[in-house]
Amino acid sequence: MIKVENVSFTYPSGVNALKNVSIEISNGEFVAIMGENGAGKTTLVKQFNGLLKPGEGDVYVDGRNTRDLSVAELSKDVGLVFQNADHQLFCETVEDEIAFGLRNFGFSNRVNKKRVKWALTLLNLQEYRKTSPFMLSGGERKRVALASVLAWKPRVTILDEPTVGQDQSQKERLLQFVRQLNTQGNTVILVTHDLEFVAECDPRVVLMSHGRIVADGPAKKILTNPKLIKKTSLILPQITQLFFRLADLGFPKDVISIYEAKELINDFVARRS
Amino acid sequence: MKAFEGLRFKRTSSFIHQLDPRVKFVLSCVVFILAIMFTELLPLTILLSVQLPLVYLAHVHKEWLSSLRSSLILATMIFLTNVIVGYMSSEFQLTSSVLTYSSSMTLRFVTLVASFSIFFLTTSPDDLGLALEQSHFPYEFAFAFTTAVRFVPVLANEAQMIIDAQKSRGLELEKGNFLKRIRNYLPILIPLIVNAIRRSLELAEAMESRAFGAKEHRTNLFALKIKMNDVLVLIVTLAILAFSIYIRLYVKIPIVEIPTF
Ligand SMILES: Nc1ncnc2c1ncn2[C@@H]1O[C@H](COP(=O)(O)OP(=O)(O)O)[C@@H](O)[C@H]1O
Ligand SMILES: [Mg+2]
Fold first, then answer.
1. DSSP string, A199-231
2. Mutating which of A45, A61, A78, A86 best tests the B interface, going by the most B Cβ atoms within 10 A?
3. A51 and B164 in contact by Cβ < 8 A?
4. B164-209: per-residue pLDDT in tens?
5. Which of A247, B37, B154, B234 holds its CA 20 to 30 A away from the CA of A141?
6. Is residue B6 over pLDDT 60?
7. Range of the domain at B194
Protein backbone atom coordinates (compact mmCIF):
# COMPACT_ATOMS: atom_id res chain seq x y z
CA MET A 1 0.00 0.00 0.00
CA ILE A 2 1.20 3.48 -0.84
CA LYS A 3 0.33 6.31 1.49
CA VAL A 4 1.19 9.94 0.76
CA GLU A 5 0.70 12.37 3.62
CA ASN A 6 0.64 16.13 3.05
CA VAL A 7 3.58 16.02 0.68
CA SER A 8 5.04 19.18 -0.81
CA PHE A 9 7.99 19.13 -3.15
CA THR A 10 10.10 21.90 -4.67
CA TYR A 11 12.81 21.28 -7.28
CA PRO A 12 16.20 22.92 -6.65
CA SER A 13 15.35 25.28 -9.53
CA GLY A 14 12.53 26.65 -7.38
CA VAL A 15 9.56 25.04 -9.18
CA ASN A 16 6.96 24.06 -6.59
CA ALA A 17 5.78 20.84 -8.26
CA LEU A 18 3.70 19.30 -5.44
CA LYS A 19 1.59 21.27 -3.00
CA ASN A 20 0.26 19.47 0.05
CA VAL A 21 -0.68 16.27 -1.74
CA SER A 22 -2.30 13.38 0.14
CA ILE A 23 -3.41 10.11 -1.39
CA GLU A 24 -3.71 6.44 -0.52
CA ILE A 25 -3.42 3.60 -3.01
CA SER A 26 -4.36 0.14 -1.74
CA ASN A 27 -3.00 -3.18 -2.92
CA GLY A 28 -4.55 -4.42 -6.14
CA GLU A 29 -5.98 -1.06 -7.14
CA PHE A 30 -6.01 0.24 -10.69
CA VAL A 31 -5.32 3.99 -10.70
CA ALA A 32 -4.93 6.50 -13.49
CA ILE A 33 -3.17 9.74 -12.60
CA MET A 34 -4.20 12.40 -15.08
CA GLY A 35 -3.68 16.11 -15.58
CA GLU A 36 -2.21 18.72 -17.89
CA ASN A 37 1.47 18.83 -18.87
CA GLY A 38 3.51 19.97 -15.90
CA ALA A 39 0.73 19.15 -13.41
CA GLY A 40 3.21 17.21 -11.27
CA LYS A 41 2.25 13.63 -12.20
CA THR A 42 5.78 12.39 -12.83
CA THR A 43 7.02 14.21 -9.74
CA LEU A 44 4.37 12.42 -7.68
CA VAL A 45 5.16 8.91 -8.92
CA LYS A 46 8.88 9.49 -8.45
CA GLN A 47 8.06 9.84 -4.74
CA PHE A 48 6.61 6.31 -4.77
CA ASN A 49 9.93 4.59 -5.52
CA GLY A 50 12.10 7.07 -3.68
CA LEU A 51 13.74 8.77 -6.66
CA LEU A 52 12.53 11.97 -5.04
CA LYS A 53 12.00 12.37 -1.32
CA PRO A 54 9.29 14.72 -0.08
CA GLY A 55 10.30 18.24 0.94
CA GLU A 56 7.53 18.27 3.50
CA GLY A 57 5.25 15.42 4.57
CA ASP A 58 5.89 11.68 4.28
CA VAL A 59 5.46 8.86 1.82
CA TYR A 60 4.96 5.31 3.11
CA VAL A 61 5.26 2.13 1.05
CA ASP A 62 3.81 -0.81 2.98
CA GLY A 63 4.23 1.20 6.15
CA ARG A 64 7.90 2.02 5.55
CA ASN A 65 8.88 5.66 5.22
CA THR A 66 10.60 6.22 1.86
CA ARG A 67 13.13 8.48 3.54
CA ASP A 68 14.67 5.45 5.26
CA LEU A 69 15.04 3.35 2.09
CA SER A 70 17.15 3.47 -1.06
CA VAL A 71 15.69 3.65 -4.54
CA ALA A 72 16.88 0.09 -5.15
CA GLU A 73 15.10 -1.25 -2.05
CA LEU A 74 11.86 0.50 -2.94
CA SER A 75 12.05 -0.37 -6.63
CA LYS A 76 11.92 -4.03 -5.85
CA ASP A 77 8.31 -3.49 -4.78
CA VAL A 78 7.47 -0.44 -6.84
CA GLY A 79 8.45 -0.79 -10.51
CA LEU A 80 8.51 2.46 -12.44
CA VAL A 81 8.59 2.37 -16.24
CA PHE A 82 9.50 5.69 -17.79
CA GLN A 83 8.03 7.21 -20.90
CA ASN A 84 11.17 7.15 -23.00
CA ALA A 85 12.58 3.64 -23.44
CA ASP A 86 15.71 5.14 -25.00
CA HIS A 87 16.67 6.43 -21.57
CA GLN A 88 17.30 2.94 -20.30
CA LEU A 89 18.18 0.51 -23.10
CA PHE A 90 21.91 -0.17 -23.22
CA CYS A 91 22.54 -3.92 -23.45
CA GLU A 92 23.64 -5.97 -26.43
CA THR A 93 20.56 -8.18 -26.50
CA VAL A 94 16.96 -7.90 -25.39
CA GLU A 95 17.59 -10.85 -23.09
CA ASP A 96 20.42 -9.05 -21.25
CA GLU A 97 18.31 -5.94 -21.02
CA ILE A 98 15.57 -7.84 -19.23
CA ALA A 99 18.06 -9.60 -16.97
CA PHE A 100 19.68 -6.29 -15.89
CA GLY A 101 17.20 -5.54 -13.11
CA LEU A 102 17.13 -9.17 -11.97
CA ARG A 103 20.89 -9.18 -11.59
CA ASN A 104 20.85 -5.89 -9.70
CA PHE A 105 18.37 -7.34 -7.24
CA GLY A 106 20.54 -10.41 -6.80
CA PHE A 107 18.24 -13.15 -8.07
CA SER A 108 19.94 -16.49 -8.66
CA ASN A 109 20.91 -17.49 -12.18
CA ARG A 110 18.23 -20.15 -12.29
CA VAL A 111 15.49 -17.71 -11.33
CA ASN A 112 16.95 -15.17 -13.75
CA LYS A 113 16.59 -17.50 -16.70
CA LYS A 114 13.06 -18.41 -15.77
CA ARG A 115 11.98 -14.82 -15.28
CA VAL A 116 13.58 -13.59 -18.51
CA LYS A 117 11.71 -16.26 -20.42
CA TRP A 118 8.51 -15.42 -18.61
CA ALA A 119 8.83 -11.69 -19.37
CA LEU A 120 9.72 -12.32 -23.02
CA THR A 121 6.58 -14.40 -23.43
CA LEU A 122 4.44 -11.96 -21.48
CA LEU A 123 5.21 -9.13 -23.88
CA ASN A 124 5.44 -11.24 -26.98
CA LEU A 125 9.14 -10.63 -27.51
CA GLN A 126 10.43 -14.22 -27.83
CA GLU A 127 11.61 -13.80 -31.40
CA TYR A 128 13.82 -10.82 -30.39
CA ARG A 129 15.56 -12.63 -27.56
CA LYS A 130 19.01 -12.27 -29.16
CA THR A 131 18.34 -9.02 -31.04
CA SER A 132 19.94 -5.72 -30.08
CA PRO A 133 17.33 -3.46 -28.50
CA PHE A 134 18.62 -0.61 -30.64
CA MET A 135 17.49 -2.44 -33.79
CA LEU A 136 13.87 -2.64 -32.68
CA SER A 137 11.02 -0.30 -33.58
CA GLY A 138 9.78 2.33 -31.12
CA GLY A 139 6.84 0.23 -29.93
CA GLU A 140 9.00 -2.85 -29.47
CA ARG A 141 11.60 -0.89 -27.52
CA LYS A 142 8.85 0.28 -25.22
CA ARG A 143 7.79 -3.29 -24.68
CA VAL A 144 11.36 -4.30 -23.83
CA ALA A 145 11.53 -1.49 -21.30
CA LEU A 146 8.29 -2.70 -19.76
CA ALA A 147 9.43 -6.31 -19.74
CA SER A 148 12.70 -5.32 -18.09
CA VAL A 149 10.76 -3.98 -15.11
CA LEU A 150 8.01 -6.59 -14.92
CA ALA A 151 10.65 -9.33 -14.89
CA TRP A 152 11.27 -8.95 -11.14
CA LYS A 153 7.50 -8.95 -10.50
CA PRO A 154 7.15 -5.71 -8.53
CA ARG A 155 3.89 -5.64 -6.63
CA VAL A 156 3.17 -2.13 -7.87
CA THR A 157 3.73 -1.24 -11.53
CA ILE A 158 3.77 2.40 -12.55
CA LEU A 159 3.65 3.27 -16.23
CA ASP A 160 4.52 6.88 -17.05
CA GLU A 161 2.86 7.98 -20.30
CA PRO A 162 2.75 4.48 -21.81
CA THR A 163 0.61 5.40 -24.81
CA VAL A 164 2.69 8.28 -26.19
CA GLY A 165 4.02 7.38 -29.63
CA GLN A 166 2.10 4.09 -29.82
CA ASP A 167 -0.26 3.32 -32.68
CA GLN A 168 -3.85 2.26 -32.10
CA SER A 169 -3.29 -1.49 -32.23
CA GLN A 170 -0.31 -1.27 -29.89
CA LYS A 171 -2.47 0.73 -27.51
CA GLU A 172 -5.14 -1.93 -27.60
CA ARG A 173 -2.61 -4.64 -26.80
CA LEU A 174 -1.24 -2.51 -23.97
CA LEU A 175 -4.76 -2.02 -22.66
CA GLN A 176 -5.39 -5.76 -22.54
CA PHE A 177 -2.05 -6.33 -20.95
CA VAL A 178 -2.52 -3.74 -18.24
CA ARG A 179 -5.92 -5.14 -17.38
CA GLN A 180 -4.55 -8.63 -17.18
CA LEU A 181 -1.78 -7.44 -14.89
CA ASN A 182 -4.34 -5.86 -12.60
CA THR A 183 -6.70 -8.85 -12.53
CA GLN A 184 -3.74 -10.97 -11.41
CA GLY A 185 -3.65 -8.89 -8.25
CA ASN A 186 -0.98 -6.30 -9.13
CA THR A 187 -1.41 -2.68 -8.27
CA VAL A 188 -1.26 -0.72 -11.52
CA ILE A 189 -0.73 3.03 -11.72
CA LEU A 190 -1.02 4.69 -15.10
CA VAL A 191 0.24 8.23 -15.63
CA THR A 192 -1.32 9.58 -18.78
CA HIS A 193 -3.38 12.22 -20.45
CA ASP A 194 -4.79 9.78 -22.94
CA LEU A 195 -8.41 10.10 -21.96
CA GLU A 196 -9.79 7.58 -24.43
CA PHE A 197 -7.35 5.00 -23.13
CA VAL A 198 -8.42 5.57 -19.53
CA ALA A 199 -12.10 5.56 -20.49
CA GLU A 200 -11.66 2.03 -21.80
CA CYS A 201 -9.99 0.72 -18.61
CA ASP A 202 -12.42 2.35 -16.17
CA PRO A 203 -9.95 2.73 -13.27
CA ARG A 204 -9.95 5.03 -10.26
CA VAL A 205 -8.96 8.44 -11.62
CA VAL A 206 -6.79 10.92 -9.74
CA LEU A 207 -6.89 14.29 -11.42
CA MET A 208 -3.98 16.66 -10.86
CA SER A 209 -3.54 20.30 -11.74
CA HIS A 210 -0.77 22.73 -10.84
CA GLY A 211 0.77 20.44 -8.23
CA ARG A 212 -2.49 19.62 -6.47
CA ILE A 213 -4.95 16.74 -6.56
CA VAL A 214 -8.18 18.34 -7.71
CA ALA A 215 -10.36 15.22 -7.96
CA ASP A 216 -10.24 11.55 -7.03
CA GLY A 217 -12.89 8.96 -7.84
CA PRO A 218 -14.18 6.41 -10.34
CA ALA A 219 -13.46 7.20 -13.99
CA LYS A 220 -17.14 7.25 -14.77
CA LYS A 221 -17.71 10.14 -12.39
CA ILE A 222 -14.62 12.20 -13.14
CA LEU A 223 -14.23 11.83 -16.88
CA THR A 224 -17.84 12.92 -17.42
CA ASN A 225 -17.54 16.11 -15.36
CA PRO A 226 -17.03 18.85 -17.96
CA LYS A 227 -15.85 21.44 -15.43
CA LEU A 228 -13.10 19.23 -14.00
CA ILE A 229 -11.99 18.01 -17.39
CA LYS A 230 -11.73 21.52 -18.77
CA LYS A 231 -9.72 22.67 -15.78
CA THR A 232 -6.97 20.19 -16.66
CA SER A 233 -6.85 21.01 -20.38
CA LEU A 234 -8.42 17.68 -21.37
CA ILE A 235 -11.55 17.10 -23.43
CA LEU A 236 -14.40 14.73 -22.65
CA PRO A 237 -14.13 11.22 -24.13
CA GLN A 238 -15.87 10.98 -27.48
CA ILE A 239 -18.49 8.57 -26.15
CA THR A 240 -19.32 11.00 -23.35
CA GLN A 241 -19.61 13.88 -25.80
CA LEU A 242 -22.04 11.81 -27.84
CA PHE A 243 -24.20 10.99 -24.81
CA PHE A 244 -24.21 14.64 -23.72
CA ARG A 245 -25.87 15.38 -27.03
CA LEU A 246 -28.23 12.46 -26.73
CA ALA A 247 -29.39 13.60 -23.28
CA ASP A 248 -32.62 15.05 -24.74
CA LEU A 249 -33.66 11.54 -25.67
CA GLY A 250 -33.38 10.48 -22.04
CA PHE A 251 -29.89 8.99 -22.14
CA PRO A 252 -27.66 9.29 -19.07
CA LYS A 253 -24.67 11.64 -19.33
CA ASP A 254 -22.12 9.56 -17.45
CA VAL A 255 -21.16 7.06 -20.12
CA ILE A 256 -17.52 6.40 -20.94
CA SER A 257 -17.20 2.90 -22.28
CA ILE A 258 -18.25 1.58 -25.67
CA TYR A 259 -19.67 -1.52 -24.07
CA GLU A 260 -22.02 0.43 -21.82
CA ALA A 261 -22.99 2.70 -24.70
CA LYS A 262 -23.96 -0.28 -26.80
CA GLU A 263 -26.13 -1.70 -24.02
CA LEU A 264 -27.90 1.62 -23.54
CA ILE A 265 -28.58 2.03 -27.25
CA ASN A 266 -29.81 -1.56 -27.52
CA ASP A 267 -32.27 -0.91 -24.67
CA PHE A 268 -33.40 2.30 -26.28
CA VAL A 269 -34.02 0.67 -29.63
CA ALA A 270 -35.86 -2.22 -27.97
CA ARG A 271 -38.11 0.19 -26.09
CA ARG A 272 -38.91 2.15 -29.25
CA SER A 273 -39.95 -0.77 -31.37
CA MET B 1 26.68 18.54 -13.75
CA LYS B 2 26.95 21.37 -11.25
CA ALA B 3 30.32 22.37 -12.68
CA PHE B 4 28.64 23.76 -15.79
CA GLU B 5 26.36 26.04 -13.80
CA GLY B 6 29.05 28.67 -13.44
CA LEU B 7 29.50 28.90 -17.19
CA ARG B 8 25.89 28.76 -18.22
CA PHE B 9 24.51 31.94 -19.69
CA LYS B 10 21.96 33.67 -17.48
CA ARG B 11 19.35 35.52 -19.47
CA THR B 12 18.92 38.85 -17.77
CA SER B 13 19.50 42.35 -18.96
CA SER B 14 22.28 44.50 -17.59
CA PHE B 15 24.94 46.92 -18.69
CA ILE B 16 27.39 44.03 -18.97
CA HIS B 17 24.98 41.76 -20.84
CA GLN B 18 24.40 44.44 -23.44
CA LEU B 19 28.06 44.99 -24.20
CA ASP B 20 29.26 43.65 -27.53
CA PRO B 21 30.62 40.10 -27.05
CA ARG B 22 33.78 41.06 -28.91
CA VAL B 23 34.46 43.86 -26.45
CA LYS B 24 33.82 41.51 -23.54
CA PHE B 25 36.16 39.01 -25.10
CA VAL B 26 38.89 41.65 -25.38
CA LEU B 27 38.24 42.51 -21.74
CA SER B 28 38.65 38.87 -20.69
CA CYS B 29 41.80 38.55 -22.79
CA VAL B 30 43.29 41.67 -21.22
CA VAL B 31 42.63 40.21 -17.77
CA PHE B 32 44.31 37.05 -19.02
CA ILE B 33 47.38 38.97 -20.25
CA LEU B 34 47.62 40.96 -17.02
CA ALA B 35 47.34 37.82 -14.92
CA ILE B 36 50.22 36.31 -16.87
CA MET B 37 52.26 39.53 -16.73
CA PHE B 38 52.30 39.85 -12.96
CA THR B 39 53.52 37.28 -10.49
CA GLU B 40 53.26 39.46 -7.40
CA LEU B 41 50.42 39.08 -4.94
CA LEU B 42 49.43 42.74 -4.85
CA PRO B 43 48.61 43.34 -8.53
CA LEU B 44 46.88 39.95 -8.81
CA THR B 45 44.69 40.78 -5.83
CA ILE B 46 43.82 44.10 -7.42
CA LEU B 47 43.04 42.33 -10.69
CA LEU B 48 40.66 39.95 -8.96
CA SER B 49 38.94 42.68 -6.97
CA VAL B 50 38.33 45.02 -9.92
CA GLN B 51 36.14 42.28 -11.36
CA LEU B 52 33.76 42.39 -8.39
CA PRO B 53 31.93 45.54 -9.56
CA LEU B 54 31.38 43.89 -12.97
CA VAL B 55 29.84 40.83 -11.30
CA TYR B 56 27.45 42.99 -9.31
CA LEU B 57 26.57 45.12 -12.34
CA ALA B 58 25.65 41.94 -14.23
CA HIS B 59 23.59 40.45 -11.34
CA VAL B 60 25.34 37.10 -11.68
CA HIS B 61 27.06 36.91 -8.29
CA LYS B 62 25.39 33.62 -7.31
CA GLU B 63 26.46 31.79 -10.46
CA TRP B 64 29.86 33.47 -10.41
CA LEU B 65 30.52 32.31 -6.86
CA SER B 66 29.46 28.80 -7.74
CA SER B 67 31.94 28.67 -10.62
CA LEU B 68 34.68 29.89 -8.26
CA ARG B 69 33.64 27.22 -5.81
CA SER B 70 33.90 24.49 -8.44
CA SER B 71 37.40 25.71 -9.36
CA LEU B 72 38.43 25.32 -5.74
CA ILE B 73 39.67 21.74 -6.09
CA LEU B 74 41.92 22.62 -8.99
CA ALA B 75 43.11 25.75 -7.17
CA THR B 76 44.03 23.67 -4.13
CA MET B 77 45.93 21.26 -6.35
CA ILE B 78 47.86 24.10 -7.97
CA PHE B 79 48.73 25.51 -4.56
CA LEU B 80 49.88 22.17 -3.15
CA THR B 81 51.95 21.27 -6.23
CA ASN B 82 53.73 24.61 -6.08
CA VAL B 83 54.35 24.32 -2.36
CA ILE B 84 55.72 20.78 -2.67
CA VAL B 85 57.98 21.58 -5.65
CA GLY B 86 59.19 24.80 -3.98
CA TYR B 87 59.74 22.98 -0.69
CA MET B 88 61.86 20.32 -2.34
CA SER B 89 63.92 22.73 -4.46
CA SER B 90 64.69 25.03 -1.52
CA GLU B 91 66.43 22.29 0.41
CA PHE B 92 63.35 21.13 2.23
CA GLN B 93 62.53 24.38 3.90
CA LEU B 94 59.16 26.00 3.79
CA THR B 95 60.35 29.51 3.06
CA SER B 96 58.15 32.55 2.93
CA SER B 97 58.93 33.05 -0.75
CA VAL B 98 57.72 29.56 -1.63
CA LEU B 99 54.42 30.25 0.09
CA THR B 100 54.12 33.63 -1.58
CA TYR B 101 54.88 32.26 -5.00
CA SER B 102 52.41 29.37 -4.61
CA SER B 103 49.72 31.77 -3.46
CA SER B 104 50.25 34.03 -6.46
CA MET B 105 50.05 31.11 -8.86
CA THR B 106 46.78 30.04 -7.27
CA LEU B 107 45.45 33.57 -7.28
CA ARG B 108 46.37 33.85 -10.95
CA PHE B 109 44.32 30.76 -11.75
CA VAL B 110 41.31 31.99 -9.75
CA THR B 111 41.53 35.37 -11.51
CA LEU B 112 41.40 33.68 -14.90
CA VAL B 113 38.45 31.51 -13.94
CA ALA B 114 36.69 34.56 -12.55
CA SER B 115 37.10 36.59 -15.69
CA PHE B 116 36.09 33.90 -18.17
CA SER B 117 33.15 32.99 -15.97
CA ILE B 118 31.90 36.58 -16.24
CA PHE B 119 32.29 36.39 -20.00
CA PHE B 120 30.28 33.17 -20.41
CA LEU B 121 27.66 34.10 -17.83
CA THR B 122 26.82 37.35 -19.59
CA THR B 123 27.15 36.36 -23.24
CA SER B 124 24.36 34.37 -24.87
CA PRO B 125 25.47 31.50 -27.14
CA ASP B 126 23.70 33.25 -30.02
CA ASP B 127 25.65 36.45 -29.54
CA LEU B 128 28.82 34.45 -29.29
CA GLY B 129 28.05 32.74 -32.58
CA LEU B 130 27.35 36.08 -34.22
CA ALA B 131 30.58 37.48 -32.85
CA LEU B 132 32.54 34.54 -34.25
CA GLU B 133 30.84 34.92 -37.60
CA GLN B 134 31.40 38.66 -37.80
CA SER B 135 35.03 38.11 -36.89
CA HIS B 136 35.23 36.08 -40.11
CA PHE B 137 35.28 32.61 -38.60
CA PRO B 138 33.64 30.09 -40.97
CA TYR B 139 29.91 29.83 -40.31
CA GLU B 140 30.08 26.05 -39.82
CA PHE B 141 32.54 26.59 -37.00
CA ALA B 142 30.41 29.27 -35.35
CA PHE B 143 27.34 27.08 -35.69
CA ALA B 144 29.02 24.00 -34.24
CA PHE B 145 30.22 26.08 -31.32
CA THR B 146 26.85 27.63 -30.45
CA THR B 147 25.07 24.30 -30.87
CA ALA B 148 27.50 22.56 -28.56
CA VAL B 149 27.05 25.25 -25.91
CA ARG B 150 23.30 25.20 -26.29
CA PHE B 151 23.08 21.42 -25.90
CA VAL B 152 24.99 21.25 -22.63
CA PRO B 153 21.88 21.86 -20.49
CA VAL B 154 19.86 19.46 -22.66
CA LEU B 155 22.46 16.77 -22.15
CA ALA B 156 22.64 17.39 -18.40
CA ASN B 157 18.86 17.09 -18.21
CA GLU B 158 18.89 13.88 -20.21
CA ALA B 159 21.64 12.40 -18.05
CA GLN B 160 19.43 12.97 -15.01
CA MET B 161 16.49 11.19 -16.66
CA ILE B 162 18.72 8.23 -17.58
CA ILE B 163 20.09 8.02 -14.04
CA ASP B 164 16.51 8.01 -12.72
CA ALA B 165 15.48 5.26 -15.14
CA GLN B 166 18.43 3.01 -14.29
CA LYS B 167 18.13 3.56 -10.55
CA SER B 168 14.52 2.46 -10.90
CA ARG B 169 15.88 -0.80 -12.29
CA GLY B 170 17.97 -1.36 -9.20
CA LEU B 171 21.25 0.19 -10.33
CA GLU B 172 23.30 1.42 -7.36
CA LEU B 173 26.01 3.79 -8.51
CA GLU B 174 27.96 3.89 -5.26
CA LYS B 175 28.13 0.14 -4.82
CA GLY B 176 31.26 -2.00 -5.15
CA ASN B 177 34.97 -1.37 -5.40
CA PHE B 178 36.65 1.21 -7.62
CA LEU B 179 36.48 -0.81 -10.87
CA LYS B 180 32.92 -1.88 -10.25
CA ARG B 181 31.94 1.72 -9.68
CA ILE B 182 33.31 2.75 -13.06
CA ARG B 183 31.40 -0.12 -14.64
CA ASN B 184 28.25 1.14 -12.89
CA TYR B 185 28.32 4.18 -15.14
CA LEU B 186 28.04 2.15 -18.36
CA PRO B 187 24.23 1.86 -18.19
CA ILE B 188 24.18 5.65 -18.03
CA LEU B 189 26.86 6.52 -20.56
CA ILE B 190 25.64 4.20 -23.32
CA PRO B 191 22.08 5.58 -23.59
CA LEU B 192 23.45 9.10 -23.23
CA ILE B 193 25.84 8.68 -26.15
CA VAL B 194 23.38 6.76 -28.30
CA ASN B 195 20.77 9.47 -27.80
CA ALA B 196 23.25 12.25 -28.50
CA ILE B 197 24.24 10.63 -31.79
CA ARG B 198 20.62 10.02 -32.71
CA ARG B 199 19.79 13.62 -31.96
CA SER B 200 22.70 14.97 -33.97
CA LEU B 201 21.55 12.95 -36.98
CA GLU B 202 18.04 14.33 -36.57
CA LEU B 203 19.43 17.83 -36.26
CA ALA B 204 21.45 17.39 -39.44
CA GLU B 205 18.36 16.27 -41.33
CA ALA B 206 16.29 19.14 -39.98
CA MET B 207 19.00 21.61 -40.96
CA GLU B 208 19.40 20.24 -44.43
CA SER B 209 15.68 20.34 -45.03
CA ARG B 210 15.91 24.00 -44.15
CA ALA B 211 18.64 24.56 -46.71
CA PHE B 212 21.68 24.67 -44.49
CA GLY B 213 24.71 25.44 -46.60
CA ALA B 214 22.70 26.12 -49.77
CA LYS B 215 24.34 29.47 -50.40
CA GLU B 216 27.94 30.49 -50.00
CA HIS B 217 27.00 33.64 -48.10
CA ARG B 218 24.32 33.70 -45.48
CA THR B 219 22.56 36.82 -44.34
CA ASN B 220 21.70 37.40 -40.70
CA LEU B 221 18.53 38.65 -39.09
CA PHE B 222 20.56 40.32 -36.39
CA ALA B 223 23.94 41.96 -36.67
CA LEU B 224 26.19 43.11 -33.84
CA LYS B 225 26.88 46.81 -33.78
CA ILE B 226 29.48 48.56 -31.68
CA LYS B 227 27.73 51.13 -29.49
CA MET B 228 28.96 54.08 -27.48
CA ASN B 229 29.24 52.01 -24.30
CA ASP B 230 31.32 49.40 -26.10
CA VAL B 231 33.78 52.05 -27.28
CA LEU B 232 34.05 53.47 -23.77
CA VAL B 233 34.69 50.09 -22.18
CA LEU B 234 37.21 49.26 -24.88
CA ILE B 235 39.09 52.51 -24.30
CA VAL B 236 39.17 52.00 -20.54
CA THR B 237 40.33 48.39 -20.99
CA LEU B 238 43.14 49.33 -23.33
CA ALA B 239 44.13 52.22 -21.06
CA ILE B 240 44.39 49.80 -18.15
CA LEU B 241 46.49 47.48 -20.28
CA ALA B 242 48.85 50.32 -21.28
CA PHE B 243 49.09 51.55 -17.71
CA SER B 244 49.87 48.03 -16.46
CA ILE B 245 52.58 47.55 -19.05
CA TYR B 246 54.10 50.84 -17.92
CA ILE B 247 54.04 49.70 -14.29
CA ARG B 248 55.51 46.34 -15.19
CA LEU B 249 58.41 47.95 -17.03
CA TYR B 250 59.23 50.99 -14.92
CA VAL B 251 57.77 50.68 -11.44
CA LYS B 252 58.98 48.43 -8.69
CA ILE B 253 56.01 46.61 -7.21
CA PRO B 254 56.01 46.42 -3.42
CA ILE B 255 56.38 42.81 -2.31
CA VAL B 256 53.79 41.42 0.03
CA GLU B 257 55.22 38.31 1.62
CA ILE B 258 53.31 35.56 3.33
CA PRO B 259 55.06 34.85 6.63
CA THR B 260 55.88 31.31 7.64
CA PHE B 261 54.87 30.06 11.02
N1 LIG C 1 14.20 17.98 -12.87
C2 LIG C 1 13.44 19.08 -12.77
N3 LIG C 1 13.99 20.25 -12.38
C4 LIG C 1 13.22 21.35 -12.25
N5 LIG C 1 11.92 21.41 -12.51
C6 LIG C 1 11.31 20.28 -12.92
C7 LIG C 1 12.04 19.06 -13.07
N8 LIG C 1 11.18 18.09 -13.48
C9 LIG C 1 9.97 18.69 -13.58
N10 LIG C 1 10.04 20.00 -13.24
C11 LIG C 1 8.91 20.96 -13.18
O12 LIG C 1 7.98 20.51 -12.23
C13 LIG C 1 6.66 20.66 -12.70
C14 LIG C 1 5.97 19.31 -12.71
O15 LIG C 1 6.62 18.47 -13.63
P16 LIG C 1 6.18 16.97 -13.92
O17 LIG C 1 5.98 16.27 -12.62
O18 LIG C 1 7.18 16.39 -14.85
O19 LIG C 1 4.79 17.16 -14.66
P20 LIG C 1 3.93 16.11 -15.50
O21 LIG C 1 4.57 14.77 -15.39
O22 LIG C 1 2.57 16.19 -14.88
O23 LIG C 1 3.89 16.62 -16.91
C24 LIG C 1 6.77 21.30 -14.07
O25 LIG C 1 6.56 22.69 -13.92
C26 LIG C 1 8.17 21.00 -14.50
O27 LIG C 1 8.66 22.03 -15.33
MG1 LIG D 1 5.44 13.60 -16.91
1. HHH--EEEEEETTEEEEEEEHHHHTT-HHHHHH
2. A86
3. yes
4. 999 999 999 888 888 888 888 999 999 999 999 999 999 999 999 9
5. B154
6. no
7. 128-222
